[in-house]
Amino acid sequence: MKNKLLFVLAILGVLLGLFSAYIYGVRKKPLPPAFNPAQNPYVHGIYATGIVESYQSNGANINIFPEVPGTVTQILVREGAKVSQGTPLVLVDDSVQKATVAQQKAQAEAALSLLQQLKAQPRPENLRIAKAQVDAAVANLKTAQDSNDKVKKSYSLDPKSVSKDQLDGAENAFQVARANLCVAQKQYELTKAGAWVYDIQNQQHQYEALTKTYESGQALLAKYVLRAPADGMVMAVNAAVGTFASSVGTYNPYTQGYDPTIVMSLPQEFLAVRCFIDEILIPRMLPPADTNAQMQVRGTATRIPLTFDRIQPYTIPKTQLSNARTERVDVRVLPVLFRFTPPQDLNIYPGMLVDVYVESK
């Protein structure tokens, strides 16, 4: 009985194994793809990853950095706003520079006042004083001369009536009075002549130098207001009130890098696509006049024809577009730019990654 049971169990095990082998050997029908994989529309074509940019004759987007560092005190625009050239975008704290400019203005005004004072000389009051001093010297000379004449006449009549000391003292007093009159006359002429021309020229140069310093301070003060360099649209504002902005941009805590404080695009009906052609595929490229290309927006089946715009004739290290600062490899690529008209029924924004297909040899 025991042997029969073992025999039955063995047969059941064999059958179970055969059944399991059959079940696991059956090929399962593959699931349909979540999206249709992109296909190159050209018989001979080059695939490249592209990034959408605002269209302009050179560069990519308009990246605006403050020329002077400081804390952002006010943001005057919103992302997506259309602005004209010269429109204020961001205000940076300028309290210290304002005080400096006020000081420079006061110094320039003080130098101007002194220059005007030199040019206005002689002052009438000073001239009247100098003239009075001349008149007083004339009167003193007349008194000394009369006294000297009297002493001399008395000596001529009776030499014993006047001592030798009196005679010499009267003569000396007369000579001193005459010298004082000469000094008073020279002082009057000096006062009447006004300021020395070299003093005026020196003060003129000081005033001009201080004026230039003041104008330089004003020009620097204007840098604390970030303005739109051209008509366009604000694409990104990478700062908030209280953020410290410098000439390298504002710190981004997510990428741990620095971004432009403001990113703008020019007003246009076109967008651009910058694609990167691998250096080993560059010889296969057609001449620019014969280049045909298409792009496919990821997540859609939309194909948009591209028009060749230009080649940036400088191969660069290939970078992963998410972080160009660190993820470098030993492959170089050639940037090629195309332009296209964005379709009305599809949202396409600068910064999007797209698939680009370029016809080749």
Give the CATH H-level superfamily of the domain at 45-55 and 268-359.
Answer: Efflux pump adaptor protein, beta barrel domain
> Which residues sit in consecutive blocks of at least 5 with pLDDT less than 50?
none
In the CATH hierarchy, what is the architecture of the domain at 45-55 and 268-359 at level 2? Beta Barrel
How many distinct helices?
5
The best one-word shape is rod-shaped
Strand order, sheet with most strands: 1-12-16-14-13-17
The CA-CA distance between the termini, in Å, is 82 Å
Instruction: Output the structural class.
Output: alpha+beta
The CATH class assignment of the domain at 45-55 and 268-359 is: Mainly Beta
| Element-by-element helix/strand order | HEEEEEHHHHEEEEEEEEEEEE
Radius of gyration over C-alpha positions, nearest whole angstrom: 48 Å
CATH topology of the domain at 45-55 and 268-359: Elongation Factor Tu (Ef-tu), domain 3
Mean pLDDT: 86
- Biggest sheet, in brief? 6 strands, antiparallel, barrel
Strand content: 25-35%
Q: Write down how many β-strands occur, each being a DSSP E stretch of 2 or more residues.
A: 17
Helix content: 25-40%
